[in-house]
Amino acid sequence: MPSRELQAALDAAEAAAEIIRSMYQRNFAVHVKDDRTPVTEADVRSEEAIRAILTERFPSYGFYGEETGRHAMGADSIWLVDPIDGTKSFVRECPFFSTQIALMREGRVVLGVSSAPAYGELAWAEQGAGAHLNGRPIHVSQIADLSQAIVSTGNLKTLARSACWAHLGDLIGRINRIRGYGDFVHYHLLARGSLEVVIESDVGILDIAALTVIVREAGGTFTDLEGAEVGLQTTSVLATNGVLHEAVDGVLRGQRWCSGAVENPAVAGGGSTINVATHFI
Question: 3-class DSSP state for residue 110?
Fold first, then answer.
């Protein structure tokens, strides 16, 4: 049986999915936010529906939403919500968008729901209870040979501008296949054992919080590119089947320190930097 918190997150995801389905592939206005990302009525309405359910059932919890911002961030438990992660795909009528709902407790993400209504997948996980995809338990692969691994990349702009770009090329030369599934898709594939590694350098916590728990509960390892646990300030990802995490990290780090820092646009407010010296050696 799901906990009350997980059930609330699942109910909120379904309420958002109903709104999103009703508006997908319809004519709607698209506005551009200050950070130059698009927002639609579907984003706003689905977040309102999610927030209404979660705050009614857990009024003492904080809430951090992509569209409505931060509320009661000093609470021990905080909901992290992106109503449509992949709004650009939603606008372009590509099915690679999802609703991401996570619960962070005392700084650690403990619950996650990833709902992709147009793609037909619903994944969820809760700390200590395993991961599920469309109602079935899932687990990462046991592939331990890097030469047999499939790697998927997502946002890489910051990495591409760094002196460490060549190390990703070194990794590609050692693996079986490289793809760029992106967004929720490659995390679902990783969690169900269909690929072994996901690498991204330009993300925000609302994009990945729920997926962190899903991958972790499926038996994988999920850190940033510096090896740190995911937190509110996380802007990069190295997610693996666990068995290959150390090997992949070793290849990406190479034989020497890369130096310098570049701007990371994923950090709200702009002008923040990500120190690539600590990303790869």
Answer: strand
Residue 179 to residue 150: CA distance in whole angstroms = 8
In degrees, rounded to 5, the angle at the alpha carbon of residue 91 between the alpha carbons of residues 88 and 92 is: 85
**CB-count exposure of residue 77 (10 Å: 0-12, 13-18, 19+):** middle
Strands 150-153 and 197-200 come out as parallel
CA distance 7 to 173: 44
Instruction: Please give the full DSSP string across 26-56, using - where no structure is assigned.
Output: S---EEE-TTS-EEEHHHHHHHHHHHHHHHH
Other CB atoms within 10 A of residue 232 CB: 16
Hey, what amino acid is at 265? P
pLDDT tens, position by position, 31-71: 887 777 778 889 999 999 999 999 999 999 999 999 999 99
CB contact at 8 A, 133 and 121: yes
Of 92, 1, 81, the residue nearest 40 (C-alpha): 92
Report CA dihedral (180, 231, 110, 199) to the nearest 10 degrees.
Answer: 20
Strand partners, 81: 65, 101
